[in-house]
Amino acid sequence: MIRCMLRSGISRSLSAFILIFMIAFLYIYLGIREELKFFGQQEKYISDKAPTGFFEQLTADRDTAYTDFFDIHINHIGFDDGGENDNTDPDSEEDILDMLTGNNKHYSDAAILWVKLKEAEPGKFAATMGEDNAFMSFMLNAYTPYGTLSNFKDELIAANEKMLKRTSALERDRIICTYELELLKKINTSLDAIPPVSGAESFLNRFNGDCIFIFFLVLFCCGMFARHRRNGYINSIKTMKCGLKKFIVDQVFSHIILFTVGYFIYALLYFLLMLPYLGDFSVLGCPIQILPQMQFSVYPITVGEYLLILFGIRYLYFLAVTCLFGFISMLSPHDMIALAVSGVMGIMPLIFSLAEVKGSFAEAVSGNVTSLIDRSDIFVVFGAAVPLAAVMCLVYLAAAGVFFLLTYFCGIMQFRTVRGKVVSSVA
Predict the structure, then answer these.
(1) Which residues pair with 384 in a beta bridge?
(2) Integer Cα distance of 152 and 189 in angstroms
(3) How many Å is the maximal CA-CA distance in the chain?
(4) CA distance to 36, 252, 293, per residue, from 40 (Å)
(5) Is the Cα torsion angle 245, 335, 223, 212 positive or negative in sign?
(6) Which residues, in sequence order, are bridge partners of residue 287?
(7) Which of 265, 300, 376, 402 is the most exposed, having the fewest neighbouring CB atoms within 10 Å of its CB?
(8) What is d(CA 341, CA 361) in angstroms, rounded to the nearest whole number?
(9) Cα gap 209→314, rounded to integer Å
(10) Within 13 A of 250's CA, how many CA atoms are on the CB side?
């Protein structure tokens, strides 16, 4: 029976998947075009650098680029047109935009032209001198966690050891501090190479916050049961040998199978899009703390392991959502109602993201994995420290199981009542 459902639903599911991925690809492409515009320069900059003294050199180069930027735009070093309107000492950096757009009358046309020509010259660190300052600002932001990794680890170890020495510390705090100390001591801070971090950071953050796949589930699951009620198939299935119970179970399982296939393809395509921005793949073996968004994590996991954790937890999150939409489809008298209700539920993570709503509930509803691996997310259960990520895995799995059982029992009860039969016949 599952094979029949898979065959009948594969074309519809494939069409929905292609549509959703086309939208997702456009969304990803538009996002990374700006985020990763300096990736080539990043690889070139780190190609001949040794880990020892890298961050100090990066900081010095950033200062050089910053100074050159002001020498061109503010001080006009190297330029003198002798004009009465030439102002070589403007008051602030805000004058730069006015100068280049011609709104600021303090600058002569020759000064503006000189700045533009100077910006177009080959840069010391990026393609042009005009990009040098922006590129080095980007590099300093991207590699600050890399440069401060050892200090961050030492400071946290010292803070936890200090907490354990306090006689007034709560038992819960002692358990968490002891657990963090064990984790921190396992973090590798002696890296053999400097990896390109921006590609992994950009794609992993985008995958973690991607709400687009949930709309595939909305389209896919809204007719799980509602459309069968509308066309009278559920009424006829009750008289067949397989029975209503088996139909409900098989229907949910067939959608879970198709969802799983779609999710694996979706995640694989995301990874393939990320491949050109991983460099020599050395970043996958580096500690997760080198990524700016994960720099405060205490877990001794690598970027590659984080990728797998991200993939696994997001799968369980979408599994729970699939079962929820199946439950909505079971209760809805019409597939358009199921689509509307599922759509409202599905858009909640996007609303939370756009409104920047924070908190445990919003993050759990959005499947935000990054927040689950932060240093503050450690639970104490029966006297033992437990990572919140493990707790949320169980929560999502339990939610999927609960919605599956609710779908099953509500389906049996609904179609065994007189009201259920009346609704079925009318639909």
Answers:
(1) 381
(2) 10
(3) 97
(4) 8, 46, 22
(5) negative
(6) 302
(7) 376
(8) 20
(9) 10
(10) 13
CA 297 to chain centre: 16
Q: Identity (one letter) of the amino acid at 111? A: A
Has residue 105 got a pLDDT over 50?
Answer: no
Nearest to 266 by CA among 6, 34, 13, 36: 13
SS3 category, 5: helix
Q: Tens of pLDDT along 179-226? A: 999 999 999 888 888 999 999 998 898 888 787 888 888 888 887 887
Q: Structure tokens of 132?
A: 């040098």
DSSP 8-state secondary structure symbol assigned to residue 217: H
Nearest to 325 by CA among 423, 200, 417, 215: 215
DSSP 111-176: HHHHHHHHHTSBPSSSSBHHHHHHHHHHHHHHHHHHHTHHHHHHHHHHHHHHHHH-TT--HHHHHH
Long-range contacts of 91-95 (CB under 8 A, 24+ apart): none
The type of residue at 140 is L
Q: What is the CA radius of gyration of the chain?
A: 28
Q: Which pair of structure tokens corresponds to residue 411? A: 């389906």
What residue type is 250 in one-letter code?
D
What predicted TM-score, i.e. pTM, was given to this entire model? 0.81
CB atoms within 10 A of CB 239: 8
Phi, psi torsion values for 91, nearest 5 degrees: -75, -35
Place of tokens 């509500």: 410
> Judging by beta carbons within 10 Å of its beta carbon (0-12, 13-18, 19+), is residue 396 exposed, middle or buried?
buried
* Overall average pLDDT of the 254-274 stretch: 87
> Residue 287 gets which letter from DSSP?
B
- Local structure of 416: helix, strand or coil: coil
| Residues 173, 13: Cα–Cα separation, whole Å | 49
Alpha carbon of residue 214 to chain centroid: 14
Q: Which long-range contacts (CB under 8 A, 24 or more apart) does 260-264 make?
A: 260/315, 262/13, 262/17, 262/216, 262/220, 263/213, 263/315, 263/318
Alpha-carbon distance 62 to 132, whole Å?
A: 9
Model confidence at 5, pLDDT cuts 50, 70, 90, reads low
